[in-house]
């Protein structure tokens, strides 16, 4: 606490990212990073971009990258906006689309824990949509009056997906609100809503290259939507920092998107490993929430999640524990390589046996 802080900064409760410890080598299954390196073409592209042009500011619109992404999704360049990771895009959405003195926005009771942080920071009221004991969201909750809607599909930290039909119903029944669909994990399961964009001017799909493209370190996300929504985001960006995505990130991201063969190979490996690990955990007596993402949300009938988290940490395996109502008996475990997951499964077995 400092007397120089504003009242706002004194009162905020910032988001706490998963730890990036330096004390020893861990099997790191706590922040949903991809265990495989990015496409070798990404490193080539970044190397080629590392030249004398670094003295120049980057293209504030990331035009070439927008073109690649538009082509990838069958959209137009004007439907694409690039950000410094999808967290930045989500943050920009608040001042762009949600009124501080307006009706509450809606998001699920159990979802990405950054959403309430943004809402509080931007002074936007929110109402939580309940989830049942299987972490299914009461979708009817999205058909009530609101000032905007934020849905993670698949959801985090549960991994639960919504069908495209349900997503379309949410978007279609809320023509007065912007519906933000956070598809950070969609490449690991489920169907993207990007195809709905030409028909729904109130839909914004937010994506990231951090997970399925192995580029958490490069900080690139993108939003897809009607050109008026994209312009709203640009107005926010250009009131804060025009150059959010640097030259190397723009070059690397393009190369990643263009290497579809590598993308397909790594993503299918993760999906295969996820399904194997889910089965192995189920046979060890765990409750495993069926996951459409690159992580699994698991609970043991007798071993408290906090103890299992601590036991795993001692054995050099890091997972994520949320000390929050309804989920404090669960651990979120990112899917690593097969070797990582064998080490994890062995450690879990030893802890649960002792
Ligand atoms: N949305 C969800 C649901 C996430 O879990 C994350 C990762 N923490 C993000 C968005 C942000 O990802 P990034 O900023 O790396 O694109």
How many domains would you count in the coordinates? 2
SSE pattern: HEHHEHEHEEHEEEHHHEEHEEEH
In percent, how helical is the residue content?
Answer: 25-40%
Rg, Cα atoms, Å: 20 Å
CATH domain class of the largest domain: Alpha Beta
| CATH architecture term of the largest domain | 3-Layer(aba) Sandwich
**Total beta strand runs:** 13
Instruction: Determine the CATH superfamily of the largest domain.
Output: Type I PLP-dependent aspartate aminotransferase-like (Major domain)
Q: Overall pLDDT, averaged? A: 97
Structural class by SSE content: alpha/beta
Q: How many helices?
A: 11
Main sheet: strands, sense, barrel: 5 strands, mixed
CATH topology of the largest domain: Aspartate Aminotransferase, domain 2
Q: Would you mind describing this structure in some detail?
A:
The protein is α/β, with parallel strands linked by helices and 354 residues long. The chain has 2 domains: 7-37 and 261-353, Aspartate Aminotransferase, domain 1, CATH 3.90.1150.10; 40-259, Aspartate Aminotransferase, domain 2. It is 36% helix and 14% strand. β9 (287-289) and β10 form a beta hairpin. α4 packs across α5. It is globular, with a radius of gyration of 20 Å. The model has no long low-confidence stretch (mean pLDDT 97). The structure holds 4'-deoxy-4'-aminopyridoxal-5'-phosphate. The site of 4'-deoxy-4'-aminopyridoxal-5'-phosphate has 13 residues, from α4.
């Amino acid at each position: 606490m400092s007397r120089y802080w504003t009242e706002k900064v004194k009162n905020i409760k910032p988001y706490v990212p998963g730890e990036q410890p330096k004390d020893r080598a861990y099997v790191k299954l706590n922040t949903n990073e991809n265990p495989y390196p990015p496409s070798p073409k990404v490193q080539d592209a970044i190397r080629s971009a590392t030249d004398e042009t670094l003295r120049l500011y980057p293209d504030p619109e990331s035009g070439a990258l927008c073109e690649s992404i538009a082509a990838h999704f069958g959209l137009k360049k004007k439907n694409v906006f690039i950000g410094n990771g999808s967290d930045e895009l989500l943050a920009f959405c608040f001042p762009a689309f949600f009124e501080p003195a307006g009706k509450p926005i809606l998001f699920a009771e159990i979802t990405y824990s950054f959403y309430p942080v943004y809402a509080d920071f931007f002074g936007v009221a929110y109402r939580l949509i309940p989830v049942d004991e299987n972490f299914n969201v009461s979708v009817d909750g999205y058909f009530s009056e609101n000032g905007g809607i934020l849905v993670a599909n698949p959801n985090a930290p549960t991994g639960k997906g919504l069908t495209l039909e349900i997503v379309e119903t949410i978007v279609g029944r809320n023509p007065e609100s912007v519906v933000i669909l956070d598809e950070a994990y969609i490449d690991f399961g489920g169907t993207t809503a990007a195809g709905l964009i030409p028909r729904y001017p109130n839909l914004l799909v937010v994506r990231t290259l951090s997970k399925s493209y192995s580029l958490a370190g490069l900080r690139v996300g993108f939003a897809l939507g009607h050109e008026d929504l994209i312009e709203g985001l640009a107005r926010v960006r250009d009131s804060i920092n025009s150059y959010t995505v640097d030259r190397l990130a723009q070059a690397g991201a393009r190369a990643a998107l263009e290497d579809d063969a590598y993308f397909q190979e790594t993503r299918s490996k993760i999906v295969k490993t996820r399904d194997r690990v889910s089965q192995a955990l189920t046979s060890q007596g765990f409750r495993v929430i069926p996951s459409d993402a690159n992580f699994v949300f698991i609970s043991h009938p007798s071993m408290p999640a906090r103890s299992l988290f601590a036991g795993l940490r001692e054995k050099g395996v890091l997972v994520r524990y949320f000390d929050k109502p309804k989920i404090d008996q669960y651990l979120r475990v990112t899917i690593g390589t097969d070797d990582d997951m064998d080490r994890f499964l062995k450690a879990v077995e030893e802890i649960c046996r002792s």
